[in-house]
Amino acid sequence: FRFVLYNFLSLMNRKIVQFKEKLHDFNRRGVTECNDEECLVNTQVRDQIVGNIATSFNEFIQTIQRLFRAQLITEGFLERLENNLQGDEVGRIVTEAYVEYFGADGGALVAFDHGKLEVLENLGVIANLDGVDRDFLRRIIAKGEPKVLTELPPDRVALSIGVGSLHPRAVALLPLTYQDQRLGACVLLARERFSRPFHTIEATNFINQATPFLYNRTLLQRLERLAAIDELTGAFNRAFGMRRLAEELSRVDRHGSQLSLCMVDLDDFKKINDTHGHPAGDVVLQEVAGQLRN
User: Fold this and answer.
1) Helix axes 48-82, 90-102, angle to 10 degrees
2) pLDDT per residue over 198-226, tens digit each?
3) Radius of gyration of the chain from Cα atoms?
């Protein structure tokens, strides 16, 4: 007991003290790094019971470290989202956070835009939905559970990464929903495997952290579109047109290119209103706007 268990328990006690100091540093500075020599015990011992205890102890320490690292990622993730409430960077922030958290080599955010699935953000890959079974994606999103495809043959999936290509052996589809609203999915790609499981409570909580911000982004886009549309004709209104004109003029100044502007005037439109009344004039405006859109 003296030379086996007592010395072993003393070693475990020292490791626990060292690990507590690491956790204290984490609480103070938001960092914790505990290498094997500092915090883990040697499992290469003759006694089987002592070896099992050592293995369980090391797994316990490593689990706590993973939880603290996950907490650090989550806190940084939420802080970045809260600082971007206007929504212009939300898609990129969410994609980056999911890639980092699950140890992916690339990813893409696919979101519903007026009922159609479109690629909102790419990270590490240049993904598009050409040739993709969109009904399959819709079923995964409707089911609401992560779908992980592993051990894919190298020639099954290939994605461009700007220079060269990425041949993932694992693909994860993470449905994103907020309350009853289906927002889309995040597609993660790994050359070999992901560093974290997707079906734990911890992973589910992390995935769901982003959905309120993605939902707000969708609402903001809808409001912006409503604010830019003329109620009568369904065409973009004057305020929107002036903003776009300013953007295009700025682009011309930056690149030294040319700009063409087409202006349309309706001959004798006042006579239509005066002769047939404003409801008739409204019909004419709606018809002309439809012809221009076509």
Assistant:
1) 170
2) 888 888 888 888 888 788 777 776 777 77
3) 29
